[in-house]
Amino acid sequence: MSRRCCTDVAEGEELPGLQVRVTRADLVRYAGASGDFNPIHWSDRAAREVGLPDIVAHGMLTMALANRLVTSWAGDPGAVVECAARFTRPVVVPEDADGTLIEFAGKVKKRRDDGTVVIMITARAAGQTVLGQATATVALR
Amino acid sequence: MTLDPSFVGRCYPLAGTYQVGRAKIREFADAIGDDDPIYLVPDAARACGYSDVLAPPTFAMTLALRAQEELVSDPGLGLDYRRMVHGSQSFIHHRPIKAGDELAATLYVDGIRAMGGNDMLTVRCEITDQAGDPVTTARTVLVIPGSDPEGHG
After folding, report:
1. For the segment A26-49, what is each residue's pLDDT rounded down to a tens digit?
2. CB under 8 Å to B80, separation ≥6 — which residues?
């Protein structure tokens, strides 16, 4: 893959969307890979004790998936110079084979003269947005 | 406020260095369902001009989390780890993290404040390489809910 060229990018352009189904098994895998063993991501009891309806996905997993949308579009993950997100709502993941579907969309918010572009990302699960002010800044060529 | 505001300004260097390995990057890429060869195949990374496989943009959190451990487990801070939720996260990548990097990390406590009945703890992890050059700046806002807990993370 090669890095997308900034002259081929227009403000307002929509990135190809991404839908990812997240199951309990994915949370276990992410916990192990990331070292985030907060029990609200694997223990029903711990989740309920802090007032959650059920086990929730790691915010950082949702953010990582959101950035997949950007890196696959940009053609080079090394082009991502900044990324940010607020975790506005929990992504509840039920104990079943289907898990929860998270839908990501992205749009070019700004194209700067230095070749960097700012992508605005939205993430929705169960009909509600789960990330706020999710952006990635990509240095294109 | 349950957190001790005198912790603002403290810093916690992570002991030792963290060697970024290809297998760890592959494990992380698998966990986020990303099969981009630039994370997995050294030749694919070289074809893009990198000396080895890259880590995904949020991989730096694995190191930032380790750097947070000493602070969040410090009983003097007054943080209830079980109730803590991740409010927001940002990364500035001064350059991509890649296999073979030997990284150091230092955690800085940038802010402690009460907002809307919650306590907000803002920390920053500065990740540097063998040469001492900046690699990633990771900012984390942790929220400790007040009497009306509504957690996420």
Report:
1. 999 999 999 999 999 999 999 999
2. B2, B144
In Å, how far are A34, A79, B50 from A87, measured between CA atoms? 17, 24, 32
Q: Give domain limits for chain A.
A: 6-22+57-139
Give the chain B residue whose CA is nearest to the CA of A34: B62
| Facing A60 at nearest CB: one of B34, B87, B89 | B89
- Closest-approach residue (CA) in chain A for B68: A36
User: Chain A residues with CB inside 8 Å of B89's CB?
Assistant: 59-60, 63, 84-85, 87
Tell me whether residues B89 and A65 touch, CB distance under 8 A: no
Amino acid at A1: M
DSSP state of A75: S
Total structural domains in chain B?
1
Q: Is the full-model pTM beyond 0.90?
A: yes
Q: Which fold has domain A6-22+57-139?
A: Thiol Ester Dehydrase; Chain A (3.10.129)
Tens digit of each residue's pLDDT (9 = 90 or more) over B98-129: 999 999 999 999 999 999 889 999 999 999 99
ipTM of the complex: 0.97
